[in-house]
Amino acid sequence: MNPLSFFDAHCTVGRRSTPRPENNLSFDELVEAYDRAGIADVLAIHAHAREYDPLIGNDHLSALCAEHPRFHPCYVLMPHWTGEMPAGDALIAYLAEGGVRAVRLFPKDHSFGLGERWAGPLLSTLEEAGVPVFIDFEQTDWCEIDGVLTAHPRLAWVVLRAGYRVDRWAYPLFSMHPTLKIDTSLYVPHRGVEMLTERFGDRLVFGTGMPVWDIGAAMTSVLYGILSDENRRKIAGETLRGILWKETGS
Amino acid sequence: MSAIWTSVREGRLLENEMVIDCHTHMGPWYNFNVPGDPWTEGMITAMDACGIRKAICTPHVAIATDYLWGNRIVEEVIARHPTRFAGYCTVNPNYPESEIVAELERAVVYGPLCAIKMHPVTHAYPADGPGYRAAFAFAHAHAIPVLVHTWESDRFCHPMMFVGIGKDFPNAPILLGHTGGPMGGVEQSIQATLAWDNLYCDLTASLSPCGMLEMLVRRIGADRILFGTDMPFIDCRPKIGFVAFARISDDDKRKILGRNTMRLFGL
Question: What residue ranges define each of the domains in chain B, with the CATH number in brackets?
Answer without folding.
Answer: 3-265 (3.20.20.140)
